[in-house]
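User: Modeling request: complex.
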Amino acid sequence: MVKAVSRSMIIAAVILIVIIVLGVYLALRPGAPAPTPVATPTTPQTPIETTPTPIATPIVSKKDTLKVAIGIDLDTVDPHGQTTTVVFNVVRHVYETLVWYDDKGNVIPWLAERWEISPDGLVYTFYLRKGVKFHDGSEFDAYTVKANVDRWVDPTVRVPLRGQLPIMKAEVVDKYTVKIYFKEPYAPALRAIASYLLITSSKIIEKYGNKTITEAIGTGPYKFVSWEKGKRVVLEVNEGYWGEKPYIKRIEWLIIPDATTRVAALLAKDVDFAYNLPPTDIDRVKAAGLQLVMPASNRIMFIAMLPKGPLADPKVRQALNYAVDKKAIIDHVLYGLGIDSKAPLPSHFFGYAEMSPYEYNIDKAKKLLAEAGYPQGFKITLLHPTGRYLQDKQVAEAVQAYLSKIGVQVELRTMDWPSFVAEIRKPLEEKTFDMVLLGWGPLVADAHFTLHGQFHSKQAPPAGLAAAHYSNPEVDALLEQAARELNEAKRIELYRKAIEIIWRDAPWIFLYVQKWFYGAAADLKGFTVYVDGEQIFFHKAYFG
Amino acid sequence: MSLVNYVIYRLSQAFITFLGASLLIFLFVRLLPGDPARLIAGPEALEEDIQMIRAQLGLDRPLYEQFATYMVSLLKGDLGTSIKYSTPVLDEILARLPYTLVLAFTAEALAVAAAVPLGILAALKPRSLVSQLVSVLAVVGASLPVFWTGLMLIFIFSVELKLLPSSGSGSPKHLILPSVTLAFFLIGNLARITRAAVMESLASNHVVTARAKGLSLGKILTRHVLRNSLIPILTVASVQLGALLGGAVVTETVFAWPGIGSLLIDSLFFRDYPLAQGVIMFTVGAFILINIVTDILYALVDPRVREVLWKTV
Amino acid sequence: MEDSLAWRIKEAKKKRLLEVWEAFKSNRVALVALSIIVFVIIVTLIGPHITPYDPYDFDLRKARQPPSREHILGADELGRDILSRLLVGARYTVGISVVSIAIGASLGTLLGLISGYKGGFSDSLIQRVNDVLLAFPTILLAIALVAFKGPGVSSLILAIAVSFMPVYVRLVRASVLQVVVEDYIAAVKLLGLGSWRIMLRHVLPNVMSPVIVQATYHMGLAILVASALGFLGLGVPPPTPEWGSMIGTGKVYLFSAPHIVVFPGLFISITIIAFNILGDGLRDALDPRARALLRRF
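Assistant: Request completed. Predicted assembly structure:
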């Protein structure tokens, strides 16, 4: 009898193998021959992408409910409490801003029909659109804008991104004219207003005061209907919308945390659009005849090197840049979902300037190391997150492998995200690692937010998260000047100078700009992939 | 000593355990590295804004003060306010609770319904097909990671056969795949424990005597064997159920099932202290209750155990 | 003549061990399992010396290459030879699961024994602490261990041992509650034996059966838990290959390059199955009464 039981264990083993093989076979079975995807993946040069918008009369199918899979739940619908791109994306269908972007990333009128900037750059006068109504029926006017600005600057309200839009106050000129004042000239002001200052009704602000707002009332093309925690958010079309009315009457945002499950939901046609899919599934999504959407993100990925030990020497830091084959990492580890860095910021940012890249060259790397006095290499520790960025662990392992070829022995260390952030925030002398893999993705595509946040010496931890503790008075001065410079040409020139210095000093191993991988049903058309590529808009979408 | 007294005694113990646990959990959660204010605001936010958030949340006050506040409101039945969602912790837990209860009880019921008969058969008729199937299930279930089983089921039943929804919740159809996935994982251990327990009691003196008396197998099974082997089965099943009530994290994530487990992970990875504490306290409470029920069941199953248990009071 | 009682007891023990071995030997499949385990143990010892390739030698152009004549089990996400990595990784995986379960199971069994046998205050105290431990999320424990003890193998072992231990406490206590009311325990109590002696000599052997079943089951679970906790920094740091972490990292390639995760998975499964067969075989062999009885049914 013991024999019999154990014999069945052997059967178990066989069945196990069969299940695995069968599962893998089923999983890998190529789908039907795929029609060509409609949306074309973006090229590095044009990170802004729009799917063909309906010309004349599009053939619109009767289907008017859209299901969208996102990976995280909303944290809050408070218009001034937003921080996360995906959540911004959802509520941005409900709330609107004074100004907005066209599909090339230029600022255009929206709830404000036009604006004026005072010569000293301190006062922005907005002339507002008339006849705009909120979802609660109240009217949009200068008093509403003032109420929103007052709440934005109120220190008792939780506004996490207040510092990114340092408004001083607002003043009503007449019912449809409002002035917004800044303490000092702030060059990215208009973009920050476009990205951050979501407008809700005065009634809501009166009702909640400095408490967190839990009702989403905006002027946008969609009304907020319900939010089932951890499950879904439902929006319905705003029949009284002042602008062009959407075809899609109802959008359900389904919260599906697992990326592979989002792929499955898309393949099973349970959803029509899915955010952030795993790069490993590109072929599978393609084979199923679905649309691939791969826009560039605002996030630049890099390895920050701390100015201590061998890494204090710029020659060593340059050597490490030559030693890592970024193109091979992009092709083989990221499945092409990256754009080789030629500057410390994404190419679609205002203020971008292209430098000549550190091409993969082991001999040059070894030579530089020898010149710096480390012909035998050295040992260092690289801290990296796992599961935060595309293939982050695999990228860290690839970098480790490349550096081992020039004799630099890298010890990898990982931790959960909050511990990781706490570790980076320690002052330099308390840090127990030498390099850190990090991504930096501001919500506004302006050089200020990347360069000031990562290279201004005042942003070095513990004050900020400038991970490389980079400190160069010349760069500090250039960045401060650029933030106040209102002349765009002059501003671009200031950033170019700063970028040149940073590029030469090489405080980072410059890696790549991350691209996203989204999937859409073959018949979903007209959705807009927005400026920074991380936000998708469905107000012009339709099935056809 | 009566059953009622025993329950009262255990519940009073539970209260003390609960208080002790709340201190332990408070310390564990608060001493983890990380700063919720920084995590709320995102890495790109400026330090001044983060300081302000920290002050608003009361995180700048000394730890003992925070603990005192926490305990005072806990005794009033208030679990605090979630840092991430700015809503009462209790509301967040109650919103997820029905999903967790449904999934946990369905999965455990499925597992018990399948594992116990299979385990008994495996012990009784070792040469039969059923018995072989038990061992097959046991080993396969225990060596396949849950994420693998879950994704395979999704791809077979949703993507290929289009019979069931791939993920989400809301209808009984949505419940099938996640509960089968979980049950598949649980059956193996439970069936093997059943098999071992039944074989053990088959060899016990009572059964040997009963056989000597010439009782039929059926009577022996129901009167002696089952009763004797129920206790290890109950133990394992209750521990499994407790763990499921604390959240089946992987299954919930794979199937986008909005349960307690994903809430816990979410809150821990946000350092949402009040929410994480609340969820863990809920799990502790669930385990305490389950263990009281299990001990009472022991006593009901085996009167001799009752004496051992109750004399300790 | 040395025909003393002590000598006879010694002989009887020898005889019993021999009987167990005979019973076990008659179970051929269990023998196969034993040889698999012996094989795995040999691999853990000499694995690093018999690899066909350098397990650390990477080549991104070969990344995710499926099995071929050159690389029998294919190449991993960085183009490293999977077979070589599995051979090197065996020692870490087997070591981690055996050590963590040895700690968790023996501590848990001991506490369960005390709790069930002594009853009263000891029982209440042990059980109430155990209630909290049972409910304590492994992931919280793991993050805390990384923070205060540092990352690495010993933190992983501790995390697994502590999270598995409470199950043994409850399991053993439940069985003890049933055993202590048996006549033979009452008999040895009357003989005036010390309680530790009774617990270890007379109670323990009668509650071992579920412990063995549970421990062999946990053997597999430990590897799965290890692979799931890798992202917190627990376990063997890369590039050192460990089966669990190979699965953890390979998870994302489940559909696009399944060999990366399936082969480590198969190695793990076969090892787990071997341990399970061994466990059942051992259990049955240790319980000759059950065998004898079952033959009669």
